[in-house]
Each structure stands twice: as structure tokens, then as C-alpha cells.
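A.,

Following up on our hallway conversation. C-alpha cells first:
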């Protein structure tokens, strides 16, 4: 039994005594405990692939920030690696794939990953974390949306345009769909395994949703996200598609419980489009660079825009690594102090 089930109740659309709050990328570089641990290791991948250490980092923000949920410390790019496409994580540069997907043969050579065999370290991290949390808060699992994973596998690294990946959608749409099929099958099995290992809720991150036009997003992303949502009936599913404001109405038809909003979306405009869905978000991460009072006022304004029910407080994207942890605490404390007054 969970001692704090605010997040799950809010995700299910139930009334809560206050708004639950957590932060995307909360387990990471804003905390000195994380930096100290990371400094002893060879790199990011060692941390991700060592279950006991990943569990420790997952729990750090629960202890340090008193958030209402933990999110397993991992990366969306473990999926392409499990499929046979290895990535590197370079300091100050981000992910890099030494080999990329260029042809039909490359797609054929990819496997649909077996979660226990190829992603067992993540599942073990979930099991270790659940035991250590001992029911304090829910544990969130996650994966990248198939389009975002394709974008990295074809481009090979982060990009402002992802022109190689987008070119495939125009020049070789059938090949794109074959690749998306394998990614989707892997992702479904992976998320199902996360739930079996103990994840109370899962989130699908479509980080590069906003670089596609609406018609392509429907064809090459929404349809696959819909499959994932249908395949995870036992726990609430959150869909977060950064920059895809045009997709909200489509997401309202998905069997997901929560829709995440980035900081450019107006919750008062989104709310009428989504029926009884819960909304998550959406403070601008840069608002946390302000003074303590500015952070407090920005948080209160965010809460007013979303209203008292069916809301999970969060940022509109991941917390930035140079953010003052004390300002993060002001954000969290303001949600806890102010949101009960709205009931």
C-alpha cells in the first residue's frame, strides 16, 4: 500500500486534497548527492546500467525535495541499444550513435528486444527502488515515443532540425513505418515489463514531437503512441509530446489518463479539448532562475490556470542542470501550500 497516492489518484481523475507535484529530470544534476555519486563513476551509462546506483539516484529527490513521486533513473536511448544500436553519452554534447539506420538492411538487422534479456538492468533497478521506497511514493516508469527514438537512430545525435530523420518520412515512408513497428513492439514489451517489475505509472516522452507538421505527426507518431497506450491497461499512462500543441485533441481520444503540457501551452485552452483527462505541467523551467518570490508567484499563477482538480504539477520540460535546488524546493513547497486553498 502506498503511503502517498496523490499522483495516482490525480492521474485517475479523482479529487485530491492538494495537487501532487514532481519534476521531469528531478533525479540528476541539480542535487549535490547526484554529482558526488556521478564523479566516482566512469560515466552516465555506468550509472544507468548499475541497478543499485540507479535506484539510489532515483530516490535522492524523494529524500531531498519531498516530491510526490519517484521516476526511475534511466534514459530513453536504452531502447535502441537493446534493439542492437549502441549509443554513447558524451559530456557536454549528449548522445551519439556511432552507427545509424540508413537502409532497409539496417532495419532488418535490428531485433525486437526482450525486456528481461536486453533491458534487465532497468527492470532490476525498478525492483530495487520499489523495495527501498517501501511505499513512500509511487514509482514512475518511462520510455521514449517511437518517433523520437527513430529520430535519434537515423540522425545519430541531437539536432535542431533532425533533417535526416525527417527526410526518411518523405523519401522512404514504408521504411520509416517498418522501423517504427520494431520500436513500438520493443517499447510495448519494455513498458509492460516495467509495470510487472513495480512501476505504478508510466510516461511516454515524445521529445521531438514539435518538429513534425500535424499530418506527419498523426501518421508517424500518434498512431504508435495509441498502440502503446492500449497495451498498458493496468496503470495510468501519461503522454508528453513537447511542442506538439496541435496534437492535444488527438491525445484526448487516446486511452491515456494524463496529458503533459510544455510551457508554451495554455491550460485554459487545452482543458476544454481533453474532457476528463488529467493535465500535467507546465511551469517554464527558466522560471526557476528567478528570485524565490518570483518562483512562488509563477507557481501560484500556474496553479490558478490549471484549476484545483485533474492536475499534476510539473515543469513544461525537464529541470535544467544549473537550476538552484532551493528554487526547486520553493516550487514544490508552493504547490503544497497553495493548492489546498483552491479546493
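Then the amino acids I'd put at each of the 343 positions:
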Amino acid at each position: 500500500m502506498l503511503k502517498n497516492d496523490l499522483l495516482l489518484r490525480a492521474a485517475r481523475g479523482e479529487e485530491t486534497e492538494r495537487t501532487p507535484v514532481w519534476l521531469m529530470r528531478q533525479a540528476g544534476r541539480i542535487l549535490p548527492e547526484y554529482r558526488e555519486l556521478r564523479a566516482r563513476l566512469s560515466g552516465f551509462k555506468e550509472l544507468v546500467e548499475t541497478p543499485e546506483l540507479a535506484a539510489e539516484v532515483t530516490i535522492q529527490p524523494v529524500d531531498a525535495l519531498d516530491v510526490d513521486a519517484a521516476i526511475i533513473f534511466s534514459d530513453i536511448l536504452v531502447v535502441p541499444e537493446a534493439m542492437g544500436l549502441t549509443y554513447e553519452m558524451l559530456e557536454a554534447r549528449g548522445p551519439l550513435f556511432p552507427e545509424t539506420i540508413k537502409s532497409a538492411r539496417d532495419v532488418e538487422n535490428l531485433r525486437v528486444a526482450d525486456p528481461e534479456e536486453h533491458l534487465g538492468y532497468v527492470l532490476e533497478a525498478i525492483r530495487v527502488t520499489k523495495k527501498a521506497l517501501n511505499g513512500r511514493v509511487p514509482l514512475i516508469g518511462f520510455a521514449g515515443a517511437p518517433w523520437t527514438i527513430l529520430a535519434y537512430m537515423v540522425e545519430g545525435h541531437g539536432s535542431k532540425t533532425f533533417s535526416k530523420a525527417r527526410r526518411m518520412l518523405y523519401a522512404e515512408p514504408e521504411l520509416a513505418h517498418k522501423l517504427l513497428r520494431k520500436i513500438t513492439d520493443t517499447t510495448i514489451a519494455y513498458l509492460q515489463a516495467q509495470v510487472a517489475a513495480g512501476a505504478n505509472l508510466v510516461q511516454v516522452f515524445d521529445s521531438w514531437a514539435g518538429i513534425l507538421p500535424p499530418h506527419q505527426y498523426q501518421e508517424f507518431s500518434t498512431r504508435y503512441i495509441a498502440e502503446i497506450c492500449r497495451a498498458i491497461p493496468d496503470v495510468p499512462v501519461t503522454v508528453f509530446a513537447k511542442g506538439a500543441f496541435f496534437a492535444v485533441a488527438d491525445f484526448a481520444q487516446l486511452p491515456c489518463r494524463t496529458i503533459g503540457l510544455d510551457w508554451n501551452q495554455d491550460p485554459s485552452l487545452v482543458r476544454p479539448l481533453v474532457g476528463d483527462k488529467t493535465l500535467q505541467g507546465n511551469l517554464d523551467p527558466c522560471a526557476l532562475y528567478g528570485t524565490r518570490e518570483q518562483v512562488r508567484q509563477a507557481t501560484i499563477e500556474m496553479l490558478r490556470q490549471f484549476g484545483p482538480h485533474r492536475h499534476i504539477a510539473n515543469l513544461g520540460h525537464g529541470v535544467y542542470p544549473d537550476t538552484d535546488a532551493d528554487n526547486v524546493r520553493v516550487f514544490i513547497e508552493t504547490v503544497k501550500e497553495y493548492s489546498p486553498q483552491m479546493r
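The domain at 6-342 is CATH 3.20.20.210 (TIM Barrel). Curious whether your intuition agrees with the design.

B.
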